[in-house]
Write a structure and sequence with these properties.
Number of helices: 9
Distance between the termini: 192 Å
Largest sheet: none
Strand content: under 5%
Number of strands: 0
């Protein structure tokens, strides 16, 4: 009985141990499967995270590249039309204006024969002018009249006022411009004989010459300013204005505006406004010269009308004063 019970207990224990072993294997297998699943899930999650990060980095790179491209386009198209060419042209324009203004005074002094304290025998100056006329400016009418033997390089150039406004700077044309201006200004005053300089008559002559030279200074300056502008500044002004109006370059500029950014269009508008101010400044300078010439004309007209009366009154006052001194 006891042996049977022992055997049964042993058999039951063996069965339980075997069953426990099987269950343990199942549990270990399940844990292994779960671990593998967790690992696979973690790997997939890591891969997904990596892909997400890579995608994010790619997007960030694309955004940065786009911003760089946009900035490059903005920088290029926001400087107005052909900025390098415009800058060069603007510098040349400014330099031409400075040079033209700087040379006017010296050209008045060296190229105009009368005025400015200059003395010369009118006959000698006429001979010199006639010599230049026959060398360069003879017309067919001069030839027909026997004054010249052949037509000159610039027929009638010494009386052609339109040449003053020509941009041509060739030697013959410049000589014609100077001849026109000298013919307008007139002949220089004859020098005073050495013995007359200290006399009352000589002093009156010098005083009268100074007044005449002052009158002539205004038209002389205006004519030389017009000549200097035409030779060294007008072509640049015409080019700058033509950049925006009425030329082939203006057509190119108009087409370029379609691809300009808003800032680029504004830059060009500012340049146009600046050019408009420069044109207005030039007009102001011309108006000031015109006003000065009109003031001289008014003074001359006043002298023509009232000058004799004024001089007669001054002479009477001087005579009366002298008589009073004698009676004393």
């Amino acid at each position: 009985m006891a042996a049977t019970l022992t055997a049964s207990v042993a058999a039951a224990g063996a069965t339980l141990i075997a069953q426990d072993t099987i269950e343990t294997r199942y549990i270990i297998s399940s844990i292994a499967a779960l671990t593998k699943q967790v690992k696979v899930s973690a790997d997939e999650q890591d891969a997904q995270m990596l892909q997400a990060e890579q995608a994010g980095a790619s997007v960030a790179t694309d955004i940065a590249n786009k911003e760089l491209i946009d900035k490059t386009i903005e920088d290029y198209t926001s400087q107005g039309y052909d900025p390098c060419k415009q800058l060069t042209a603007t510098k040349q324009f400014a330099l031409a204006e400075i040079t033209a203004r700087r040379t006017i005074g010296s050209r008045v002094a060296t190229e105009i024969q009368a005025g400015g304290g200059k003395y010369a025998l009118p006959g000698d100056v006429l001979v010199q002018r006639d010599k230049v006329h026959k060398a360069l400016f003879c017309t067919q009418a001069d030839v027909d009249a026997g004054i010249c033997t052949s037509v000159g390089a610039i027929p009638g150039g010494d009386t052609n006022a339109s040449l003053i406004f020509s941009t041509d700077t060739s030697a013959n044309v410049v000589a014609a411009k100077n001849a026109v201006i000298n013919n307008i200004i007139g002949l220089p005053d004859a020098p005073i004989p050495a013995g007359q300089a200290a006399t009352a008559t000589g002093a009156a002559y010098v005083l009268q010459k100074k007044q005449r030279d002052a009158y002539l200074a205004f038209p002389a300056y205006s004519l030389k300013a017009a000549q200097a502008d035409a030779e060294g500044f007008d072509s640049f002004m015409r080019e700058r204005v033509g950049q925006y109006f009425g030329t082939k370059e203006a057509e190119n500029w108009a087409r370029d505006q379609a691809s300009q950014s808003e800032r680029g269009v504004l830059v060009d508008m500012v340049k146009i406004q600046g050019l408009t101010l420069k044109v207005a400044e030039r007009q102001l300078r011309q108006d000031l010269r015109r006003e000065a010439n009109e003031a001289v004309e008014l003074a001359l007209e006043n002298d023509r009308i009232n000058g004799k009366k004024t001089r007669d009154a001054a002479a009477k006052a001087l005579a009366s004063q002298s008589a009073g001194l004698v009676t004393q």
